[in-house]
Amino acid sequence: MNFEFATRVKKIPPYLFAEMEDRVSIKKAQGVDIIELGIGDPDLPTPAPIVEEVRKHVLDPENHNYPTSAGELETRQAVADYYKKRFGVEVDPKGEVCILLGSKEGLANIARAFVNPGEKVIVPDPSYPVYAQGATTLCDAVSVRVPLQPKRNFWFEDSPAVLDRTARMIYVNYPNNPTGAVASKEYLIGLYTWCQQTDTIMVYDNAYSELTFDGYVAPSILEYGKEGAIEFGSVSKTFNMTGYRIGYAVGDSKLITGLKKVKSQVDSGAPKFLQKAAAFALSQYTGRDKPRMVQDNIRVFQERRDLLVKGLRDLGFKVDPPKGTFYLWFQVGGSSMAFAEKMLNLGVVVTPGIGFGQAGEGYIRIAATQPTARIEEALERMRRAL
Predict the structure, then answer these.
(1) In whole angstroms, how far apart are CA 174 and each of 90, 155, 306?
(2) According to DSSP H, which parts of the chain are helical?
(3) How much is the pTM?
(4) Second label for 343, Cα 20 to 30 Å away, from 133, 165, 263, 386?
(5) What is the β-pairing status of strands 142-147 and 247-251?
(6) Whole-number Å distance between alpha carbons of 250 and 258
């Protein structure tokens, strides 16, 4: 039988990361020693106390039944407690928190709840592909791509007035993937105020809030207001729990209600034993400061960041050390795909910037997710080739 994809699916470009995985698999099958600096998947293990929590709860038969699609109240309470301690924000665990199968799922489903076909969604360029594809395109909506300005620390222009006032929703992400940029309080307040004035839903992707360096402390957008805003977070990067698929959404109760309504039709929630492990992880926060297990992560990633910055500078690239995320974002003076292909032939996986939007062309993203010895080997391979 001859089946065709739905029109909305036909509009989705090939997912760059999936294509990269296929190419890497071919190289591995050929016996090539691959150094993976592409996808942002931490190589560090989940802290042992969290793993022990999983073990404890998975052995309890009470955790083997269906959870709720909105998340167990115990887990939502843990998220609310975390927001109070970490950001000083009061949230209602019953009406203002939703547990997710990783924040990626929520970032897509929030558009399904509030964006109609033909409506506009403002998407930063470059940005995480889910904003434009998993959310906007799959809702038959229109992506309004707005370039992030390198000279403005990868923000939009000086004034939000450059943004489309007729948009239904806007995605904002700091610390930023892929650029590693962070945003000032004044800049974020300006964006939030603009959203209030234009009735634009603000979707704030805060997945990297805890992965920061050099004394920088990332805020929550909810510190500046909750009405019309929804924030997405995750334990994935904070606690090296990417495979656990636990995230959360916090914010305006109407937005949370819409998200829950969508989720009630498409999933049955995350396993209870994983939710309890995530709740335990978040409970390690006793205040604004990061707990020891997170600080240990930061020290490792900062050492790797500094090693990459120095090595890439020695190779002639202009690289600024990011204050957030474990990504380095730099120009290569030509096609990002061609550069990434050249690196792959050396057994070094990097991500071409074009995969994050047209404004990413000419850039490369490198993730500091390998031990220092492997990073040094990757830099040496690059030195020999360049």
Answers:
(1) 21, 10, 20
(2) 7-10, 16-29, 48-58, 73-87, 103-114, 185-198, 253-266, 272-282, 292-314, 336-345, 372-385
(3) 0.96
(4) 133
(5) unpaired
(6) 12
The whole-angstrom separation of Cα 350 and Cα 348 is: 6
* Burial status of residue 64 (CB atoms within 10 A of its CB: 0-12, 13-18, 19 or more): exposed
Q: What is the DSSP string of 201-246?
A: EEEEE-TTTT-B-TT--PPPGGGS--TTEEEEEESTTTTT-GGG--
Dihedral angle over CA of 339, 341, 345, 349, nearest 10: 80
Tens digit of each residue's pLDDT, the chain (386 residues): 888 898 898 888 877 777 778 888 898 899 889 999 998 899 999 999 999 999 999 999 999 999 999 999 999 999 999 999 999 999 999 999 999 999 999 999 999 999 999 999 999 999 999 999 999 999 999 999 999 999 999 999 766 778 999 999 999 999 999 999 999 999 999 999 999 999 999 999 999 999 999 999 999 999 999 999 999 999 999 999 999 999 999 999 999 999 999 999 999 999 999 999 999 999 999 999 999 999 999 999 999 999 999 999 999 999 999 999 999 999 999 999 999 999 999 999 999 999 999 999 999 999 999 999 999 999 999 999 88
Do residues 241 and 50 lie in contact, with contact meaning Cβ atoms separated by under 8 Å?
yes
Cβ neighbors of 371 (< 8 A, separation 6 or more) are: 43
The full set of domains in the chain, from first to last, is 7-45+291-385 (3.90.1150.10), 48-282 (3.40.640.10)
Indicate the Cα dihedral angle 113, 117, 119, 122, nearest 10°: 70
Amino acid at the residue 71: G
Beta strand 169-173 with 142-147: parallel, antiparallel or unpaired?
A: unpaired
**356-383: string of b/e by CB count within 10 Å (b at 16+)?**
bbebbbbbbbbbbbbeeebbebbbebbe
- For residue 46 the two structure tokens come to 């989940």
Instruction: Please give the structure tokens belonging to residue 94.
Output: 């019953």
The Cα 247–Cα 270 span in angstroms is 9
To the nearest 10°, report the CA torsion of 37, 170, 154, 194: -160
